[in-house]
Amino acid sequence: MSDAEEPPLEEAEENGESEMEEDNTPNFEEAENIQRKSKEYDTLAWIDSQDEEEGEEMKRKEKKKAGEAQEEEESSGVQEETTVESQEITKSEISMEKLITGSQSAMSGTFPETRRGSESKHSLQSEGSKTKELSRVQSSQLRILDLDEISSEKQEVSSLERQPSGELEEETVSMPQDELGRGGRHLEPEKGKEGGDEKEKDVPSKAGISKESLVSTTSEDILFQKEEGTEYPLTMTWSFGWNSSLPVYYIREKNQRVLLYVCAHSAVIYNVSRNNQYHLQGHANVISCLCISEDRRWIATADKGPDCLIIIWDSFTGIPVHTIFDSCPEGNGIRAIAMTLDAKYLATISDAEIQVVCVWKWTLAVDTPACTLKLPGEYGFQKYLIFNPANNKELVSNSKTQAIYYLWNEERGTLTHSAPLLTEKTFNKLVGRFTQSIFHLNLTQILSATKEGKLVVWDIHRSPSSSSASLGTPYIKPCKLVHLQKESITVLTTVDSYIVTGDIKGHIKFYDHTLAIVNWYSHFKLSPIKTLSFSTTLPAPPTEKSNYPPNCTLKGDLFIVRNLIIGTSDATVYHLTTDGTKLEKLFVEPKDAVCAISCHPYQPLIAVGSFCGMIKVWDYEKKKYIFSRVFEKGLGIQSLTYNPEGALLGAGFTEGTVYILDAMSLENESAEPFRYSRASVTHICFSHDSQYMATADVSFTVAVYVVVVKSGKRVWEYLARLRSHRKSIRSLLFGVYLDNNEPRLLSLGSDRLLIEYDLLKSHKDNLEVLDIHRSGQGSYPTCMVWYPPLTKELFLLICNSAYKVKLFNSTTKMCRKTLLGPAYGSPIEQAQVLPVKTTRELQKRYLVFINRDKVGLQILPIDGNPHKTAAITCHPNGVAGLALSYDGRYAFTAGGYDHSVVQWKINLSALEAAVSLGGEDLTPFYGLVPGGREGKFYRELEDYFYYSQLRSQGIDTMQERKVSEHICLSEVPFVMRAIGFYPSEEKIDDMFNEIKFSEYVDTGTLIDKISLPDFLKVYVNHRPPFGNNMSGIYKSFDILGYTNSKGKKAIRREDFLKLLLTKGEHMTEEELSDCFASLFGLAPEGWKSEPATSSFKGAEICLEEELPDEITAEIFTTEILGLTISEDSKQYVH
C-alpha cells in the first residue's frame, strides 16, 4: 500500500520546496492547451496532404494492375463490395475506429510471408557470416512498410493520454480497455465495415504482400503457440539471468503477463504466466541497447562490437522484419537507441570516441540513415536517447554533463542540435550529473534528472514560423532548477498525466505537470531503481472492490495508475499491482559475473554460482527455482562441483576459501571452511569414491582434502598442497587405476606439464608427485578429459592452443595420435564427454566443448573430419563454464560477466545427418586441401609420393623399379617438407609413433609403411590448421632478437648459429652444415650432403659468406628458407 496517507516529514519538506521554486513557472495547462490545438491543426493538415500524395500514387499503381485484377475477379466469380462512407475530418474529431482498427491494418503492409518468416527463424540459429547473409537476403526481400497513415493518429493518442487525469478518464474510459492495449492486433480490416475505406483495403495490394503473411495475420498469442524445432544440433531453450544494465519492458498484461529483457546476445520474451521463454536470436555481439514501440508490437535491438547489427522484430511472431547492417562503419556498435511513437523511425547513437547520431527510416527497408550528426567530444559520452512522443522530428539525449536537443529536418536531410553548457554558475547551485532526460508533458520543455535529486527544466525555443518546428533553428535554454528530492534520481519517465521518478533508495514517485508530488511508493525497501515500465492496459475504473490508495493532494482523490514492472540494481524484477499496492517478486538473478555451474549427477538440478556470493539451484526441466544461499560480502563463487553421489557440493571462492556443502540444503558439511589458499580457486573435483577432493588455484597450486573417520563420523580434512606448476593450471582430473580401483589425480598446466600425483604415499602437508611428462612443444594445452573406452587402449584427451586434439596413453603418457580439432575462431578451452543413458549408447559417444565464445558438439572418435563437429555462439564476451545434464540431453554454458547461464538442447541426429551429407571415406579430407581431389596440390602430392619411392630405391640404380601404393616410414618427413609442412623432430616422432602403433593393440604388429590415403589424413591432422604464417617467426625474433638501427628485431649471425647449436632441438655442427648446404643449393638433394658434390671447404667459411651479419625475420624467411611472403595476408608460401 502507498505511503500517501501519512507522508514522511522529509517528503513534505521536499514538496514544499518544490512548490516554492515553481512559483515563477509558466501556466503549464494553458501552454499545453495552446500547444495541443496548434498541433491538432498541423497534424490534420499533414494527414490531408499525405492522403493526397498517397492517393495519387495508388492511382498510378492501380492503373497498371487493373487488367490483372479484373481477370482475377471474373475467374473467381466473387464480387467484393466495400461500403465507403465519406466522413469529414474536423480539427477536433478523428475516427477512433480508424485509429484502432483501420490504421493498424496499414502496419501489416509489407512483411515477409510465412515462408520467409521460417527462413528468418532458420537464420537465427546460424552463426557468424551465415547469420548475417540470411538476414541480408531477408532484408532485401522486405518491401516498404507503410506507417504514414498512423503517424498523425498516434500523435492524437498521445495528446489524449497526456491530458490531466480527469479528462483522460472522461474520454477514454468508455472505450474497451483491451483496444488501447492491443496495439497492432487488428491487422486486417473487416469487409464492409465503416472506417475500412478503400485506402485501407488497398494496402496489401500496394505492398505486394499476400494476406496470408504471418506478420500481418498473427495475434499476440501465436508466439508461445509455436513449437520450437530441434533441427539444429544445439538449440537454446532457456536463459537464466538478465542484463540488469538494460531495461525490462512490460509487453502485455491483459490475458497473460509478458516481459521483454536482454540476456547476453539474445532478447528474451518471457511469459510469466506460462513460465515460457522465446528467444530473439540474431546478434553476434552482446546486445547493448533496445527499445520498443508504444503499442509493444515492434522491438529494436542493437549490439556493440565488430559487424554490429540493428534488428527490428515483430513481438507477436518473433520474426525479424528488418536488419540494418554496417550501422557503424567504425565497428564500435550502438550505445543508445530510440523509436518514435508511431514506430516509423529509429534513432541511434554510436559507441565511439566521436559519437554519431543517426535517424533511420527502417520501414523503407533501407540500410543507410536518413541523416547523421557527429557530436563533438566535449559533449561527453551520450548514453540516453528519446524521441518527443508528440513530434517524431524532435529528440533529446544526455551524457553525465550535457543534454542535447535535436531537430530533424526530413526534407533537407539534416539534424540540427542545441547543447547549451550548464555549469554551477548557471543557477548558482550544484546541479549534479545527468542521468536521464525526457520531454515534459506540456511539450514545450525538456526535463533532465540528476544524481543530486534535481530536475533541470529546459525551455524549447522553436521557430515562430511553424509550430511543428520544421523550419528555423530551434534551441533549448535552461530556465529552472527544481530540487525534487534528496535522493539521486536514476529513472525519469512519464505515464498518462504523471511524471515518474525512481531513485537510488528504491523509491518511486509520481508528479503532476507542475512537478507537484501526487503519490509515492517508499515502503518496499527496494534496491536502487534501474528501470520502470508501465502496462499498456489502462487501469480499471474504481469500484467498491477496488483498493486504490488516495493521493497526497488536499482533495485526497484516488491514485489510479497502470500496473508496472520494476527492475532494480541487484538484478531483481518486481511486478506492482497498483490496485491494492501488491508487490510481487518475479525473479532474482545474479548481479555479478557467473563462472561456476554444475549439474547434479542423477537429478535435473543445476547449481549456479556468482561473484556476488549467491548459489542458486534450479530444476532445469521445470524451469523452477528451488533454493539458494547468499554468502557474506567478499565471498564470490569461482567454481562448483557435485560429488559422484550427489550428496555434496564443493565450492571454491574468489579469495581462496573452499566450502563443502550439503547438496540439498547448501548448509556447511564441515564445521569450518578450508582457508589454505590465498588465491581464487579455479578448479574443484571429487574422486570416484568421494574419498578425496582436489582443488587448484590461480597461484598454480594443487591442494588435496581427504575423508577421515573421527568419533565414528566421516569428516573432511586437509591433506596437503603443492605448487606444482609454473603457469596457470588448465585441468584437474581424478581417474581410476584399472588394476586396483584406487583413485589417481592428474593436473595439466599452461607450462605444458602433465603431472600425476601419488595419493597413497602422500601424507599431511606432503603431496607426492608420481611422474611428470611434457604434453607438447610450442603450443600450450587448454584442457584435458578422459577419453571414453571406444578402443582397447585407455587414453587421455588433451586439447591445445594450436587447434589440435592429442590422445595420450594413460599409462605411458606417450602421444599416440594427433588430430585436427574443431576450429571455430579460438581453441577449445573446456570439454566434457556427453553422458549416456543406456548401455546401447556406449558405442557411440560425443564430446561437448566450449571455446572463447561458442559451444559445440564433436562426434567421437575424432579423426579430423570437419563435418563431425558443430558449434554456435553462446556468449560473445566469453564463456566461463560448461556443465552437462546427467542424461546427456542438455548442455549449460556460463557467460561470466554477462551474468547469464544458457541451457542448450542437444539433438544428436542433426549432427549425424550433417556427417552423412559431408561424404564418406576420404571425401571430407579432400575438401581440406587446396583444389580438392582434382586440384594441383593433390596431384603434386601424388608426384612427391611416388618420387619418394624412387628416392628410397636409389636415384642412380639400374635395377627394375617397383612401384607400390606405400612409402616407407622414413620418407614421411621428406614428403611433408616437400608439400610445405615443416614439422619439428618431436612432431616427426609423434607421426612415427602414430603410424607405427596404429594396429599394435589389435594385432600386435608394428607398421613400417603408409599408403597415400593414410598419408593425407596424417598430413591434414598434423599441419598448422590455418597454413603457414609469419606470426610465429615474428614472435620468436621478438623474444630472441634485439632492436636494430632500423627499428626491427634482428639476431646477429654469431648468436643465430649459437642458438641453432645449443637451444631447443639443437643441431650438431654436421647437421647444421648439411642443412645450410641444402638451403643454399650447395648440395644436390637429400638431408646428407655428398662430399663429391660439395663446393665448399668448411662450414664456417660457407656460413660467413652466405649469411648476413644481421638477420631479421624477413631475411630469415625469404633469403635463408627461400619462401615468399604474401603482402596481404602476411603468410609465407612454399
From TrEMBL:
<dbReference type="GO" id="GO:0030317">
    <property type="term" value="P:flagellated sperm motility"/>
</dbReference>
<feature type="compositionally biased region" description="Basic and acidic residues">
    <location>
        <begin position="33"/>
        <end position="42"/>
    </location>
</feature>
<keyword id="KW-0966">Cell projection</keyword>
<feature type="compositionally biased region" description="Low complexity">
    <location>
        <begin position="76"/>
        <end position="85"/>
    </location>
</feature>
<feature type="compositionally biased region" description="Basic and acidic residues">
    <location>
        <begin position="179"/>
        <end position="204"/>
    </location>
</feature>
<dbReference type="InterPro" id="IPR001680">
    <property type="entry name" value="WD40_rpt"/>
</dbReference>
<keyword id="KW-0853">WD repeat</keyword>
<feature type="compositionally biased region" description="Basic and acidic residues">
    <location>
        <begin position="57"/>
        <end position="68"/>
    </location>
</feature>
<keyword id="KW-0969">Cilium</keyword>
<dbReference type="GO" id="GO:0036126">
    <property type="term" value="C:sperm flagellum"/>
</dbReference>
<feature type="region of interest" description="Disordered">
    <location>
        <begin position="1"/>
        <end position="211"/>
    </location>
</feature>
<feature type="compositionally biased region" description="Basic and acidic residues">
    <location>
        <begin position="113"/>
        <end position="135"/>
    </location>
</feature>
<dbReference type="InterPro" id="IPR050630">
    <property type="entry name" value="WD_repeat_EMAP"/>
</dbReference>
<dbReference type="GO" id="GO:0005930">
    <property type="term" value="C:axoneme"/>
</dbReference>
<keyword id="KW-0282">Flagellum</keyword>
<keyword id="KW-0963">Cytoplasm</keyword>
<keyword id="KW-0677">Repeat</keyword>
<protein>
    <recommendedName>
        <fullName>Cilia- and flagella-associated protein 251</fullName>
    </recommendedName>
</protein>
<keyword id="KW-0206">Cytoskeleton</keyword>
<dbReference type="InterPro" id="IPR015943">
    <property type="entry name" value="WD40/YVTN_repeat-like_dom_sf"/>
</dbReference>
<dbReference type="InterPro" id="IPR036322">
    <property type="entry name" value="WD40_repeat_dom_sf"/>
</dbReference>
<dbReference type="Pfam" id="PF00400">
    <property type="entry name" value="WD40"/>
</dbReference>
<dbReference type="InterPro" id="IPR011992">
    <property type="entry name" value="EF-hand-dom_pair"/>
</dbReference>
<feature type="compositionally biased region" description="Acidic residues">
    <location>
        <begin position="1"/>
        <end position="32"/>
    </location>
</feature>
<dbReference type="InterPro" id="IPR011047">
    <property type="entry name" value="Quinoprotein_ADH-like_sf"/>
</dbReference>
<comment type="function">
    <text>Involved in spermatozoa motility. May also regulate cilium motility through its role in the assembly of the axonemal radial spokes.</text>
</comment>
